[in-house]
Amino acid sequence: MGILSWIVLGLVAGLLAKALMPGKDPGGLIITILLGIAGAFVGGWLGTELGIASFNGFTLQGIGVATAGAVVLLVLYRLIKKKT
Fold first, then answer.
1. pTM
2. pLDDT for 30-82, tens place per residue?
3. Greatest alpha-carbon span in the chain
4. CB contact at 8 A, 43 and 74
5. Are 2 and 32 contacting, i.e. CB atoms less than 8 angstroms apart?
6. With bands split at pLDDT 50, 70 and 90, how would you rate the model's confidence at 1?
7. 3-state DSSP assignment of residue 69
8. Domain spans of the chain?
9. How far is it, in rounded angstroms, from Cα 51 to Cα 71?
10. Torsion angle of the four alpha carbons 61, 64, 68, 70, in this order, in degrees rounded to the nearest 10
11. What is the distance in angstroms between the CA of the first residue and the CA of the last residue of the chain?
């Protein structure tokens, strides 16, 4: 899967993460989408390393893993921003 596909998947994952975790984010929608892109990379890497997922394109499994990574990063981001 190319870098452009990861970015698009990250955009989708970021929007899904925002839908799953509504509320006021310290950075707004743009930061949430960027976290989604990072979450796609983190979730994809972890999924591949753990043998949970193999990413050959846009599949429900790939979107789920990327969204899970985005939710984790969004939770961490909210915790860090709350403390500062």
1. 0.76
2. 777 787 788 877 877 777 788 876 655 677 877 888 888 888 888 888 888 77
3. 39
4. no
5. no
6. low
7. helix
8. 3-83
9. 20
10. 110
11. 37
